[in-house]
User: Fold these one by one.
Assistant:
Number 1:
Amino acid sequence: MNNTIFDDVFRTMIEKMPYLAVPLINEVFHTSYPEDVKITQLRNEHQQEDGEIITDSCLLIGRKMYHIECQSTDDMTMVIRMIEYDFAIGIEHAEKQGRRYRIEFPKSCVLFLRSSENTPDYLETDVVFPDGNTYLYSIPAIKMTDYTKDSIFEKNLLMLLPFYIMRYEKKGHNFNDNPELFQMLLNEYEEIRVNLEKELTETGKSELYTDLTKLIVKIADYIFRKEEDVRKGIGDIMGGKVLELESERLKAEGRTEGEAIGQIQGETRLGSLITRLLQDQRTEEIPIVSTDAKRREQLYKEYNL
């Protein structure tokens, strides 16, 4: 399955901020793990004879394995892929007990970023074993549309915030034609910014605030890649505080204010360019722009960055 910007953002959170998955696991599987519970990230690559399959996440908490997939569309074949992934995970962690093996499936779910009224609450399939017994494979489906910004903060489901903008992806032209509606969107994101800042920076987690905000802007830039005013509006609201926090961090490291702001703006500009290259499927140019200043400047002009 081809990587998308949604997969990249989800995996970034899982790899760099795995503790964000804990409230989501508690929400879906009705557990009560504390946020600082020990999490072990298991391998996402599982080799099979016909090729490698890569899962979005596989986490170990205590002796329980949790497998979460992020899916951008309501794909009816997802349940088949999930049981394939789960079987590969179970085989890899099979326990030998005398002459027998115990294969335990992980606790799995799918996060649907887009869904419809036909998207089920559970993905299910019947599995018929050689002895004739039939077992139901059933895993929960999490739908972004079920969560408001208020419920996300109430349940501490901060991992969902970067994808919240997707509920508005079909309204891009409406925002251009309706200033009042556009202002409502900006007000909502100002509220998200304030809540996120209160949630994280006041508890000494300003770095997490910065990282999450960058991912929120990254997804918004992609969703509204053809709507410059919308991109700029959300970017100004969410990015302004990030610039301030990053500037403070760099000044604490001994940079002057001018040097700090210059470095941040350069990093932000390069990040925007890489996002645009990903959107246009020009991934082969990403390593080049990181090292070739001349080519980087050419692409800045091409993308008007």
Number 2:
Amino acid sequence: MNRFELDPEFAIRDEQSLRGLFEATHALAIQKCQATIGQHAREFISRSPFLCIGTQDLDGKADVSPRGDPVGFVKVLDERTLAIPDRPGNNRLDTLVNIIANPTVGLLFIIPGFDDTLRVNGQAILTTDPELLAGMSVNDRAPKLAIVVEVSEVYMHCAKAFRRSHLWSPDHFQDRREMPSLVKIILDETTGAPTDADEMRRMDDDLEVAYKRTLY
């Protein structure tokens, strides 16, 4: 595939040029941004089993990481503070390292079947407070740490993206078998996947076993 080159004539490089492409922001779109976790935001968070957390390091290198657990896994500690348990992962620690370098985070809370989402922005810190972690145990296993976020902005996000994507519509679900397995994708892009189908199948099965063993 040939490398794409953007025509600089059409690049947008300042806010004035950007805003000139759009109508003025509706007043409610500005007013809806709250500085605290209100009643409806608290209920939304209590129903959510999944969120994405966006972070950046000091050089501006960005990362977005998915976080999922049983419904209500994120704890609202007060109207300005929430806590996210950190479960076992691949130990790259991209999100956690970024938070140490740059505490600014953005969260997107998602509820299956809901087309609208909840956005939360704030400053994060990592903690190993045993009392807090004990309240986040699953299967008698407490997380090693939690991400505590001091909230600065909270607002609901409209349903357009989810409706355009038909994310929850079974008619639009895709067959996962149409792409290689996760293990094969990673091996294809690194050391090379085995050509023997039985060996590849064993590796896929091993991953499923590992999932069951290391979720918590």
Number 3:
Amino acid sequence: MTGLSVALALSATCAFSALAAAPKPDAVLKNKSIEARIFLDDGIKADAALAADCLTEGEKWLDKNAAEAAASRKEDPQFFKNGGWDFERKYSIRSVVADRYVSILRNDYMDTHGAHPNSDVNTILWDRTANKRISIRPFFTETADGGPTMKAMVKAVIASLKAEKKKRDTSETATDEWFKGIEPTLLKIGAVTLAPSTEADMSSGLTFHYPPYAVGPYAEGEYVAFVPWETLKPYLTAEGARVFGGARPKGDAEAQ
């Protein structure tokens, strides 16, 4: 076999291996207007109740976007000459705390043939004991809108974002105008997860996840703000004190 033949054979083998290794979607919707996919990571699929919950939500998302794509195609068919919209949603586990609280990242990709594709990020906190979604309320003595806990969180979130913008050399957008959407309420402070910890089964604090445009221009991409548990210690319930501890692992910031 010649060198060229060997190279071609290796290239074909690598291409086949990459194709074989590509994960298979857990739900797909494809027609002339849209191709959309849902992916659940292996950790989620290992929990039947959690997998069913995510898949039910994901399929509703597929149907909603398919309806919007069909309506858009009917109104402006010229924008679909090169194919339909392309959507993808991925559910992945960020942390498991106390073998009970599962933090999940929900990442969306949307291409509607605009100037550029868009992305979004949201989060889910799952209680394995109750088999349902919960909020972070059980970890804090109070979470009233504009109350001391939420004000402390907002202050810490903005400080973290300013530090990250300084690191990225984008401090010119570390302004009140870009942070005005971060309000001292659970619904408007940002999508939250329990950060992993150097101590097993514990959380080192809260991470807040912001998609492009949320706290900076599109070109700056996503941001993640970290609030260490020590900052929130005065506001913790007994359950909060039980699950928070340790430090943020090295490399966690880079992984987000």
